[in-house]
Amino acid sequence: MKIGMLYSLSGAQSEMERSILDGALLAVHEVNTTGGIRGEELRVAVFDDGSDVSATAGGIDRLCRDESVDVVVGGYTSASRVQMIPAVHANRTLLMYPTYFEGEETDSRVFYCGAAPNQYLEDYLSWIADHLGRRVYILGSDYIYPRVLADAIRRIGARWSVTISGVWHAPLGETDFSAVLADIEQKNPAVIISNLVGVDSTAAFYAQFHGAGFTAARLPIAATVTTAVDLAHMPAEVSDGHFMVASYFAGLESAENQAYRAAMNTVRGQRRTHSAQVGAYNAVHALRLAAEQARSADPADISDALLGIRFEGSPEGIPFYFRGDHYSTHPAYVGRASDGEYEVVEQFSPRLPDPWWSGSRQLSVSG
Q1: Partners of 283 in beta bridges
Q2: DSSP summary character for residue 2
Q3: Is residue 326 within 8 Å of 109, Cβ to Cβ?
Q4: Coil, helix or strand for 109?
Q5: What is d(CA 328, CA 326) in angstroms, rounded to the nearest whole number?
Q6: Which of 152, 16, 85, 153 is nearest to 326 (CA)?
Q7: Which one, 38, 164, 236, 277, has the greatest CB density within 10 A?
Q8: Which distant-in-sequence residues (6+ apart) come within 8 Å of 354 by Cβ?
Q9: Is 313 left (phi over 0), alpha (psi -120 to 50) or beta?
Q10: Is the pLDDT score of 232 beyond 60?
Q11: Which residues pair with 193 in a beta bridge?
Q12: What whole-number distance in Å separates Cα of residue 99 and Cα of residue 103?
């Protein structure tokens, strides 16, 4: 079996996406050092899209036509996934998408290895309302994931008497937040829900937020995308006390996570771990289990077999497997930033994924 891996290994998204690739390549190492697949080595081909979303479809073509991969594990932003899907269909392959995302999509050739919003956002909103405040300001990058989450927060926030004091979407890569900080000061929310994506934007906002006199005690940030990779670009006094929701944090206490973190450091030299990285790790192990059961490495046979696997070694804390709609199982945790990592302060009961939970128009793709 040969897996294609498509990530931004250069350009603006490279630090985050290299860390995700580390998760996938660690799993490849583990597969090959424990016998491979039916005694044969799992092979890999890697494509760098250069942080250019328009290059991702061509990357699928290159991996499938020139490298003859059987399936692809890759993508980070939803914008990249959307661009890849037509090429995935044209090449009759499968995409294992590792990142938690906005839902609102099902596709017969995509397996969603990260959490859907109903698995993390609903309980997070309830927790925010109870612990941080009910008057929220929504900040996000200007593309599909942050916009869908903002709409979902508007739609369901009334359940907990959440009111929206303001919404601001900044271009990807934006580093000047003076205007939004002035708006936040004027609107006087109780909490900021941040859906900012990208190290440059996230680090710039947190630093300017702190420089404007806002503190976690006065106005906490409750993020959905600020990972340990982002925290590494901020002084502790800037990030400490702010919050994040995720299906995985490095501080989870389990034998599986301890083994994962040790192997990540030893094999890949990577100390920063986060949920998208774990999604890529789980994806490769799921493919191994499926390939051992499937009649062949043909994508159709692998797709059928993926619906019957169960990976018990997920660092997230519960077994990883797919539902019939190709969505996967995940827990959810709230972390509080402390010295560049997150301390787990709340755990929610796992929810089964619901692609259409936010109630917006279905964007189903099949074939």
Answers
A1: none
A2: E
A3: no
A4: coil
A5: 7
A6: 85
A7: 277
A8: 103, 116, 118
A9: alpha
A10: yes
A11: 138, 222
A12: 11
Confidence check: pLDDT of 361 > 70: no
Rounded Cα–Cα distance for residues 253 and 238 (Å):
26
String of DSSP letters for 55-107: GHHHHHHIIIIIS--SEEEE--SHHHHHHHHHHHHHTT--EEE-S-------B
In 249-361, DSSP assigns E strands to 330-338, 341-351
pLDDT of residue 363: 38
Rounded Cα gap, residues 247 and 333, in angstroms: 6
Query: Rounded CA gap, 172 and 60, in Å?
Result: 23
DSSP 325: T
Determine contact, residues 347/253, Cβ cutoff 8 Å.
no
- Model confidence over 270-292: pLDDT tens digits? 989 999 999 999 999 999 999 99
Please report which residue ranges of 188-227 form alpha helices under DSSP H.
Answer: 199-211
* 183-186 CB contacts, 8 Å cutoff, 24+ apart: 184/137, 184/214, 184/219, 185/212
Nearest to 27 by CA among 224, 188, 268: 268
- State the DSSP code for 321: -
CA distances from 20 to 73, 182, 227 (A): 10, 35, 12
- Pick left, alpha or beta for residue 68 (phi over 0 → left; psi -120 to 50 → alpha; otherwise beta): left
CA–CA separation, 198 and 225 (whole Å):
9
**Phi-psi category of 38—alpha, beta or left, where left has phi over 0 and alpha has psi -120 to 50?**
left
Query: In what helix (H) or strand (E) does residue 311 lie, and over which residues does it extend?
Result: none
The 8-class DSSP code of residue 218 comes to T
Cα–Cα distance measured from residue 305 to residue 309, given in angstroms and rounded to the nearest whole number: 7
Residues 240 and 282: their CA atoms lie apart, in Å, by: 29
Written as six digits, the tokens of 323 are 């539902």
Name the residue among 127, 113, 116, 192 with its Cα closest to residue 347. Answer: 127
Would you state the structure tokens that stand for residue 365, as one six-digit string?
A: 């793709």
CA distance 182 to 184: 5
- The 8-class DSSP code of residue 212 comes to T
Residue 27, beta-bridge partner list = none
pLDDT score recorded for residue 366: 32
> Which has the higher per-residue pLDDT, 317 or 362?
317
Q: Which residues pair with 338 in a beta bridge?
A: 341
